[in-house]
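Long-time lurker. I teach an intro course on protein structure, and each term I like to show students one example going from raw sequence to a predicted 3D structure in token notation. This year I'd like something fresh instead of my usual example. Would anyone be willing to generate the tokens for the chain below so I can use it in lecture? Attribution to the forum is fine with me.
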Amino acid sequence: MQCCSSAAHAHGTPGGVASATAPAATEETAFGRAVDPRRATRTVNVTLGDTMRFTPARIEVRRGETVRFRVTNAGKAMHEMVLGTLADLREHAELMRRFPNMQHDEPNMVHVAPGKTGTLTWQFTRAGEFHYGCLVPGHFEAGMVGMVVVR
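-- Reply from a regular --
Happy to contribute to a lecture. Here you go:
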């Protein structure tokens, strides 16, 4: 997972919502790839909140399925949903702790301001257990992580 692109993207956007409407890259990762949202075959609603939890905390998908995540921030703090392996998320969370103003914007993440909704569309090309987390400093460590099971 690429973490800290040199592009001038803040951790979040001026409007507070980043939406993967046109993936910047279709690079294959261990957990799949970003795809055109028009290819989504299913929409999963995910809620973020200041309880430092995702609802739902577990999502099951079929290998090859393309999922549009509609991510709503029901809290008062900025949150995000970042897809990856657990090792990738831990590494990225550590970088966020060390560099809280780090600038990045990758196709496997969506930043969502309080009261806003963003989208992320992903094709899961490999079977396994993958994760999603909020990597705003302190949120991942507080338990803001969920699991995607790909069968």
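Some talking points for your students: Strands lie at 33-34, 42-48, 54-55, 58-61, 66-73, 79-84, 109-112, 117-123, 128-133, 145-150. The two ends are 22 Å apart (CA to CA).
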